[in-house]
Structures are given as structure tokens and as C-alpha cells.
């Protein structure tokens, strides 16, 4: 029996701090992620993890 490791990255449900728009983003983005409603940058790539600049509502499995 071979074990499969769990991924270290997750999808996040976040809320924009400017317009309160909710959207799902990847927790380790490779590019800037903008709010779909107002265009504010809500996530930036930083080393191996992302810098999330929005309110995290939920970590999705």
C-alpha cells in the first residue's frame, strides 16, 4: 500500500476589504490576483507562499 501525501497548498475563499466581494483564490499564487469587482490587488506571490491582502473567510478542502 502506497500513501499519497496531502498537498501543502489550498484554495481560499476571501473577501475584498474595499468592496466586500467574495471570490475563491489559490493560496500560493504565481501572479498578482485582483478583485473581480473593483480591481484591487488581493494576493501577491511571495517566496513559496502568497501574501494575501484580503480577509480569509474559509480554507477550502
TrEMBL record:
A zinc finger (C4-type) spans 16-38. GO terms for molecular function: structural constituent of ribosome; zinc ion binding. Part of the 30S ribosomal subunit. Binds 1 zinc ion per subunit. This is Small ribosomal subunit protein eS27. Its cofactor is Zn(2+). It comes from Methanococcus maripaludis (strain DSM 14266 / JCM 13030 / NBRC 101832 / S2 / LL). Zn(2+) binds at residues 16, 19, 35, 38. Keywords: Metal-binding, Ribonucleoprotein, Ribosomal protein, Zinc, Zinc-finger. GO terms for biological process: translation. Belongs to the eukaryotic ribosomal protein eS27 family. Pfam families: Ribosomal_S27e.
